[in-house]
Amino acid sequence: MTQDNQNKKNTLINIAEQIDKNAQDRKKVQMIYAFNGTGKTRLSQAFKEFIVMQDKADKDDSGFLALHKILYYNAFTEDLFVWDNDKYQQGEHQLSIQPNSFTDWILKEQGQDLNVARYFQSYTQQNLTPHFNEDFSAITFSLAAGNDQRIDNIKLSKGEENNLIWSIFFTLISLVIAERNIAEESERSTNEFDQLRYIFIDDPVSSLDENHLIQLAVDIAKLIKTSESDIKFIITTHNPLFYNVLYNELGLKNGYILTRLADGYFELKNKKGDSNHSFSYHLYLKQLLQEAIKENKIEKYHFTLLRNMYEKTACFLGYQRWSDLLPDDRNVYLTRIINFTSHSTLSHEMVPEPSEPEKQIVAFLLNHLLENYNFNE
């Protein structure tokens, strides 16, 4: 961004134009940090409006709406889902899905309801299950209570509801990326997304607990790395830990900070080099793992955190492979970690919960890393 742009009084449409120009300059991913209340969600709306206005100017075609040019996840996406109070009066908590092409394609046409459920459970509870009705217009929820018993008609918390909506969106963009990775348009299962230019992700971590925050960042980075098309990604967040993990996982060279000025205008500042590393998370990773070990609450995602620590340490020390840091019998340990960290989130085969010996492996490998590679207490 030029100094002139920094000094200019920008509306959110001006900021959207800057982001679009950055993408045209071959920026595949743009990460934007902003405090809550700055205008992140409004920016995603302004960006959609800017892209639609471009289409009207270029083609005089108002039929190309956001779904065809931009997919975005933000607070407005959540408005597609509403609790049915009439059903509640009948003793049933039901989350209704407003009619839209967004969910029709992924649930009705692509049949991804089971994958949505699996991804949702990975960020909430394995025993909390969503059940889609026959025409995918509503969802009910049940909670397994042990002894083959289950509690039906569960009302989700707001955080759990947001996780479900994010799970649907993540499944959607996974499929879209896979479709666009098929070079020949005639060989794709759908051509609905042939013109897609942007995927805009606005603060997906606001409803997640911190234990799953790093796992989510790693999952998003892994998905973006699989994209071989010219789709561009814009990610906004108020969470410094989420920003830092994604920034490092994606190997970015710079990021941005969105600020709202006192006069109501906005500024998008370039955040270069080492300033992006000010959001350190290595000690936080270490703390999370040590607490889980102490309380014997090791779950699958802790293997992701452990692998992340090994990868970053290997990179810092100049090793080509993070597995080089593993102790003797490294192939045994490598296989265990790979089993828990490399399976697709959309796979039909679920990796089981770690056994007690596997939980002990996490403790052993963490101590090995801390004791042998000069981690300061």
Topology readout:
Elements: H1 3-7, H2 12-24, E1 29-33, H3 40-59, H4 66-69, E2 70-73, E3 81-83, H5 85-89, E4 95-97, H6 101-109, H7 113-123, E5 128-132, E6 138-146, E7 149-151, H8 158-180, E8 198-202, H9 210-226, E9 232-237, H10 240-250, E10 254-260, E11 266-272, H11 282-294, H12 300-317, H13 330-341, H14 356-372
Parallel strand pairs: 1-9, 1-10, 2-8, 8-9
Antiparallel strand pairs: 3-4, 4-6, 5-6, 6-7, 10-11
Task: Please characterize this protein's 3D structure.
The protein is of the alpha/beta class. The protein has 14 helices and eleven strands. It has helices spanning 3-7, 12-24, 40-59, 66-69, 85-89, 101-109, 113-123, 158-180, 210-226, 240-250, 282-294, 300-317, 330-341, 356-372, and strands at residues 29-33, 70-73, 81-83, 95-97, 128-132, 138-146, 149-151, 198-202, 232-237, 254-260, 266-272. The strands form two sheets. A six-stranded mixed beta sheet has the order 2-8-9-1-10-11, with helices on both faces. Strand 5 and strand 6 form a beta hairpin. Helix 11 crosses helix 14. The two termini are 40 Å apart. Residues 1-7, 59-66 and 343-350 have low confidence and may be disordered.
